[in-house]
Amino acid sequence: MAFGKYKEVMALKAKDAKVTGVAQDGGVVTSILCYALEQGVIDGALLAAKSDTPWLPKPVVATTKEEIIAAAGTKYTISPNMSAIKSAAREYALDKIAIVGTPCQIYAARKMQLYPFGARHIADKIALTVGIFCTENFSYAGLKTVIEDHCKVPIESVTKMEIGKGKFSVKGAKDVAIPIKETHKYEQDGCHVCSDLTAEFADISTGSIGTPDGWSTCFTRTTKGSDLMKKALAAGLFEKKEMAEFAAPMGLAMLEKLETGKKDKAKKTVADRTALGLFTTPGIVY
Amino acid sequence: MAKPKIAYVHLSGCTGCLVSLADTYEKLLDILGAVDMVYNLTLADARDLPEGKIDISIVEGAVCLQDKHSVQLIKEAREKSGLVIALGGCAATGCVCNFSRGGQANQPQHESFVPINRLIKVDAYIPGCPPAPEVIYNFCIAAVTGDTQYLAPFMAQNVGGYHCGCDLQVNVVQNSLCMGCGTCASSCPTRAIEMEFGRPSFNNIRCVKCGACTAACPRMFLPVAEIQKKLMV
Ligand code: SF4
Ligand code: SF4
Ligand code: SF4
Predict the structure, then answer these.
(1) B165-230 — its CATH code?
(2) Cβ(A155)–Cβ(A200) under 8 Å?
């Protein structure tokens, strides 16, 4: 089944101007987290926030709306959010933690819930998982190379970056867009075995693929995710459209095409590496 | 169905694994209620394994090769038991016992401490120092209810024997599998792992060789079917 198991899929756009001003796309992650915090569904969230190094994210434990909003926007490099879950449970003493992350980080959180080898009284505090669509990721050095060597823009001047329509674009000292093809060789190789584009195991997953600028495609996948989203919609957090409004080749057709491409690539990578005699993760292609 | 007969065999370990089992709070009663505990030196006053067959022996601690009684006990546990489970780092990987070089009062001759699979065949391993109460609980319930799909990763033979934080480098990073999630770092009991630019950076001096980081890494195994069945509801 395309897109994994889900209950509802919809196009969303946050109404709160504070959120849309800073969000990458429809502001779904930021809005739903703020709402979950307000409603007491969570008491904090693990997020990728800005660090002192330009565009190097660092995992943070956000416990206020302001902190959640401050962390909005896509980071095109790795933020090891799961590394902060222990301090969220211990130092911050949170009982209801939201995990926000790429599909692979959702895998990590889900595996920890079932097999918490070294996570004493931590996994039971995961209250919500919000997944972000992901096609691939860059190491920090890889991202810097793309921006500085290929786009020829100093990374510290960059104010926004975006992947879409076959381009990698940055706004900074100047605005530059390069063909996405040029960036492929800097992708982290660990991504090439990954078959999950739409965060198939999150309570709620969202991303820009399939919807026009300023909107996000959003799946609810569990009862918990679906209930929370229904309440948020009833509370008027989002403008909502049916995905059917975006006809092929846009909309779900586009998402499915990219998803199939990612799954095929992962299968091929796993087969190639197995042929070389290398270990690959049991269960990773499905 | 008769309750399975369980023996809790305590070798050279700190009793932290037993404490972790008890740290499941009221859930401990589910476990104790589902089994017939026939031997547990720490909790009950019987010095020897009972006569006859035992369904499952849960072993905590490494075996000291200079301690004849321990060697004999682990052999006897194997012979009598349908299944032998290595609970926790010391039994499964040797853990902190790997560092022993003998010379300690009052048994200075006690020098060599090995994970139990050095001497006997082991059916399942639960790594960690100690393993989290929740993973012990999940394991016990799965064992009692025959949930083999859940148990499979514990039964992989590479989970036992010597482990180290270096495994992340050798098995995950060197196989181009790491994606920088940071789970290894939060699974380490001694905080020997920090994430640097999206990869585990490992401090060997802090590592107690418990095996938790590798077991927890989603790139070592990914339980997709289990996640689907148990969490996507
Ligand atoms: S492509 Fe997969 S492995 Fe890579 S960052 Fe995205 S979700 Fe993680
Ligand atoms: S790095 Fe930490 S979790 Fe990994 S084996 Fe060493 S002590 Fe255990
Ligand atoms: S747990 Fe995550 S960060 Fe650690 S080695 Fe595995 S994939 Fe890499």
Answers:
(1) 3.30.70.20
(2) no
- Residues A94 and A223 both lie in one domain: yes
Range of the domain at A115: 8-135+192-275
- pLDDT at position B144, please? 87
Spatial CA neighbour of A207 closest among A24, A4, A53: A24
A244 shares a domain with A131: yes
Look up the pTM and report it: 0.96
Kindly state whether residue A224 falls inside one of the protein's structural domains.
yes
Write down the ipTM of this complex. Answer: 0.95
Q: Tell me the per-residue pLDDT of B153-172, one tens digit each, with 9 for 90 and over.
A: 999 989 999 999 999 999 99
Q: How far apart are CA B185 and CA B181, in angstroms?
A: 9
DSSP characters over A246-269: S-TTSHHHHHHHHHHHHHHHHHHH
Q: What is the predicted pLDDT for the residue at B1?
A: 63
Please name which of B88, B68, B66, B81 lies closest in space to residue B10, comparing C-alpha atoms.
B88
- Given this model, what pLDDT does residue A88 score? 97
Positions in chain B short of pLDDT 50: none
d(CA B183, ligand 3 centre) in Å: 6
Residues A44 and A99 in one domain: yes
Res. A166: pLDDT tops 90: no
Cβ of residue B4 lying under 6 Å from some atom of ligand 2 = no
**Residue B79: strand, helix, or coil:** helix
Dump the DSSP string for A93-118.
Answer: --SSEEEEE-HHHHHHHHHHHH--TT
Is residue A44 a part of any domain in this protein? yes
The closest residue, in CA terms, to atom 3 on ligand 1 is A191
Q: Please work out whether the CB of residue B212 comes within 6 Å of at least one atom of ligand 2.
A: yes
Of the candidates A38, A1, A40, the one whose C-alpha atom is nearest the C-alpha of residue B232 is A1
Answer whether residue A1 is part of any domain: no
| Pocket flag, ligand 3, residue B183 (CB < 6 Å) | yes
CATH number of B5-159: 3.40.50.700
Of the three residues A186, A201, A223, the one that is the final residue of a domain is A186
pLDDT digits (tens, 9 = 90+) for A13-49: 999 877 777 766 779 999 999 999 999 999 999 999 9
Which 3 state secondary structure label does DSSP give B166? helix
Cα of B177 from ligand 2 centre, angstroms: 19
Q: Are residues A165 and A80 in the same domain?
A: no
* A114:B175 CB<8 A: no
